[in-house]
Amino acid sequence: MTNTAYSLDSVKALYARPLLDLVYEAASVHRANHDPQDMQMCTLLSIKTGGCAEDCGYCSQSIHNNADLEKEILMKTSDVLEQARKAKESGSTRFCMGAAWPRVLDGRAFDRVCDMVKGVSDMGMEACCTLGMLTEAQAVRLKEAGLTAYNHNLDTSREFYDKVITTRSYDERLDTLKNVAKAGIAACCGGILGLGEREEDRISLLHTLANLNPQPESVPINVLVPVAGTPLEKQKPIDIFEWIRCIAVARILMPKAMVRLSAGRLTISKEAQALAFMAGANAIFTGEKLLTTPNPEKDADYGLLAELGLKPRAPYKDGPEPAEKQADAA
Ligand code: SAM
Ligand code: DTB
Ligand code: SF4
């Protein structure tokens, strides 16, 4: 898919529109491109926790921070697949495995992750990974194992980036995204709101995401979960209407993408989440834990969908398998 480049001025103008006009337009774009009742339920699992050498200021898993977290070595494939099976039984159609690695290194650990991907894919779920930086050859191996998408976030604007992370650069993130695209894997790429960035940083991030070629298949919108022991633990929460505004702009600029509400939903009211769904968000992570931080209980999420008349996306056994879906879209 190629996309027309958006100018920064056009993104600025969109972002500045009256909020309810923006939500109205986003809802219209959403309805033209997706079933508005459909909500994809996804499950996250931390397959290797803590001890990461990068210094991301928000992260519980960085060795540069002092979060109270038990380090864990890479999980066994059979344990991961057991969790994936449970996630599928509880209605998830996508299973995302996260490792606290700065980059993938070839060797036994990566071989094991490829086995996990194959196992999840063979279950008929979308398989997603987030493992840090990746070479093109490693991306090709993940593709061959059946990976649907690779999560690699830009997190914030290029301009604000080094206020939050100094051990890796924006260009390194973009290089991994290029390697993912070259291997024919869909990118799941988004950011975090509430890091202390300004409005212009949020605009710049949305502008960069929308101009990725191809555009991300999935755009995770994380809200900072302030973790004790990290430099951002006392950060003021993002204004909820700024969150809605970013979701609406993401939906308008990336009409085909899944706009995925990721970290931070636990502290967001159900009314605000309903407005986010109106503005085009169509995927959530369910289950009581994200990677290391808490998430709404499954029953609360399914209850909210029922109250709003939304329906969890059907499992693939009732529809096309992910591989067939991709072939259809090509
Ligand atoms: N190490 C890999 C990497 O950084 O690409 C993958 C795991 S990392 C935990 C995945 C993403 O989680 C980060 O890119 C960031 O956007 C998000 N994240 C991590 N900690 C967060 C927090 N406290 N609040 C919100 N989002 C967070
Ligand atoms: C993404 O953008 N958000 C998810 C997923 N991709 C891997 C991770 C959120 C992590 C939140 C902090 C934690 O639980 O450690
Ligand atoms: Fe490591 Fe990823 Fe956390 Fe950064 S966000 S410290 S790279 S696990």
Report on the structure:
With 330 residues, this protein is of the alpha/beta class. It has a single domain (8-315), classed as TIM Barrel, CATH 3.20.20. Helices cover 39% and strands 14% of the residues. The chain is built from eleven helices and ten strands. The protein has helices spanning 8-15, 19-33, 77-89, 108-122, 136-145, 170-182, 199-210, 240-253, 270-278, 298-308, 322-329, and strands at 38-48, 94-99, 126-130, 149-151, 186-188, 191-193, 218-223, 258-261, 283-285, 311-312. Strands 1, 2, 3, 4, 5, 6, 7, 8, 9 and 10 form a ten-stranded parallel sheet that branches. α5 links the parallel β3 (126-130) and β4. The relative contact order is 0.17. Residues 317-330 have low confidence and may be disordered. Residues 52, 54, 56, 59, 61-62, 100, 102, 132 line the site of iron/sulfur cluster.
Brief characterization of the structure:
This protein has 330 residues and is an alpha/beta fold.
C-alpha Rg, in Å?
A: 18 Å
On the 0 to 100 scale, the average pLDDT is 92
| CATH architecture term | Alpha-Beta Barrel
- What is the element string, with H for helices and E for strands? HHEHEHEHEHEEHEHEHEHEH
**How many strands, what sense, and barrel or not for the largest sheet?**
10 strands, parallel
Low-confidence stretches: 317-330
* Count of the domains: 1
Q: Terminal Cα separation, in Å?
A: 8 Å
| Beta strand count | 10
- Sum up the overall morphology in one term: globular
| Ligands (ions, cofactors included) | S-adenosylmethionine, 6-(5-methyl-2-OXO-imidazolidin-4-yl)-hexanoic acid, iron/sulfur cluster
Task: Report the CATH C-level class.
Answer: Alpha Beta
Number of helices: 11
**Structural class, from helix and strand content?**
alpha/beta
The CATH homologous superfamily: Aldolase class I
**Share of residues in strands:** 5-15%
Q: What is the CATH fold-level name?
A: TIM Barrel
Helix content: 25-40%
